[in-house]
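Hi everyone, sorry if this is the wrong subforum. Our group has a chain we'd like a structural model of before ordering constructs, and none of us has done structure prediction before. Sequence below.
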Amino acid sequence: QLQLAESGGGLVQPGGSLRLSCKGSGFTLDYYSIGWFRQAPGKEREGVSCISSSGMSTNYADAVKDRFTISRDATKNTVYLQIDSLEPEDTAIYYCAASVRILGCAERFNVALLYDYWGRGTQVTVSS
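Answer:
Right subforum, don't worry. Here is the predicted structure as tokens:
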């Protein structure tokens, strides 16, 4: 069974950091571009970052560009999202997703319909 599982969310104070993980099981992530999305209460799901299958290309939404860093570790079949300088506006459920249709994480990386597999999400809450 092909699954993605996110972890690493939690409650943090503004200015803090978290590292989210997205682990694949039942398949290797090596052939997929991996995207991270988030959905805040009452808002639409938005794409925040993407990393290509090779790891050579990444992309970020403008709102997170200077604070989020995406990476992947093929030996662990895992993609990470490092989030620094957390703001209350980052509060959301964070999802990872895998796509074979997105190449190089170009401008369409934030189109949810292009992703084939999704995890169930991990909650990130930023509050003092």
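For your construct planning: The radius of gyration is 13 Å. The longest strand covers residues 18-25.
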